Amino acid sequence: VQRLSFTIPASIELPTLVAPNVTYTVANDSAGAYTFSGTQSGNNPQLGPFYRGGTYTINIDATGHPFYFTTNNGTGFVAGLYVGEYTTGVTGSRTESGTITFTVPQDAPDTLYYQCGNHAVMRGVIPVRDLAVEQNSNGNYIIYGQHSQDGHSQRIEIRPLPELASQMCLVYDATSDTWQPQDLATYVE
After folding, report:
1. 97 φ, ψ to 5°?
2. Which residues contact 85 (CB under 8 A, 6 or more apart)?
3. What's the average model confidence in pLDDT over 144-172?
4. CB 35 within 8 A of CB 28
5. For 102-127, what is each residue's pLDDT tens digit?
6. What stretch of H or E contains 145?
7. 20 to 30 A from 49, CA-CA: which of 42, 89, 159, 189?
8. Can you give the pLDDT at residue 128?
């Protein structure tokens, strides 16, 4: 265990965020799975999140397995019907061998799926998010401390300094066995 010490500036300048440009390479494992390699790996993995405004390229080599994006979670799947197909911002939908490009629109739903047009089990989830600096429910910014080798990360909430001027608190004085009023700023110091 190592204790880290760092100073947080009085004001935080938010970074300028740039919409991502990500490429995925996809093949197939017979009719059982889309197999991803490169940026994402594995059979039918969850992708993303995809960020609104970002561009995602799918280089696919899966003859007989047309790849498309859908709003359907799989419950309405019918082979060859492309139920719930999502085409806004998509070029090359249903491609089996070639390139599909998806520039995620600002009004895209929060969850999309990729799906094979012929096989129900060849599918996966894609969370869709706004491109923004993360904030928690209190409106405070979140940064991450990340381990340089294992990829573990820890959420860190950046909180503003509390306003302590002219606030009082009660402090227990063990020698007199009483509670004493004290200026909160002095107590915190």
Report:
1. -145, 110
2. 68, 69, 70, 93
3. 74
4. yes
5. 999 999 999 999 999 999 999 999 99
6. strand 141-146
7. 159
8. 97
